[in-house]
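To assess whether ligand presence alters the predicted conformation, the chain was also submitted together with cytidine-5'-diphosphate. Input:
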Amino acid sequence: MKKITIAIDGFSSSGKSTMAKQLAKKIGYVYVDSGAMYRATTLYAIRNGMTDKETGIDTQALINALPLIDISFAITPEDTQHTILNGEDVEKEIRGMEVSGWVSPVAVIPEVRHYLVGLQQQYGKDKGIVMDGRDIGTTVFPDAEMKVFVQASPEVRAKRRYDELIEKGTPSDYESVLANIKERDHIDSTRKESPLRKAEDAFVLDNDNLSREEQMEVLVKLFDEKTRGED
Ligand code: CDP
């Protein structure tokens, strides 16, 4: 069967990573978490003194450092995907609130986007890929055969993210998680460079009231429709 490209976009914590991962596993495709790439770049900036509460991000220093930022993914023996920044497993650190607080302003910088979009297009050049993010169906793979746009209310998303952080042992409070989600929604959808928006040809999946199993059914049906007749 001919391989296709699958783009899954949506708001923060809409569950798109979980669904993209599950779908990729089920159909034997590669999964790439583009948000993890923005998060790893942000961690690099934090660690190298390029973020400051008073003065913000040292944009020029970060742009100059981009060629030094190597991001890859590794599969652990437990079969989970971990993000590797310059040879170091940073999966846990990039999910914390410090990175979450800086990632959207970092993702606004056009040079950062061009650099990461280039890497993402490289990963997808042979198709057979599921990538999730904010601009996958609009900018990274505008010709993707299957595009999904995931939505859920901010409160449902904050509850999911809060539960996830607690489960991972990261101390958190629901109100700050909700505030961070709303702030990122705002920055992500109003930025100039490839803002978060639904591609015209994307299928909208509202998952406020859908279980993981139900949303998988919807996705697999869509995948079957898109690949039917292709050989
Ligand atoms: O997992 P969560 O929904 O919190 O976000 P993520 O997918 O890890 O992405 C973190 C941040 O990276 C987003 O809030 C965006 O600011 C940025 N991002 C982006 O601008 N473009 C993408 N394709 C993916 C993420």
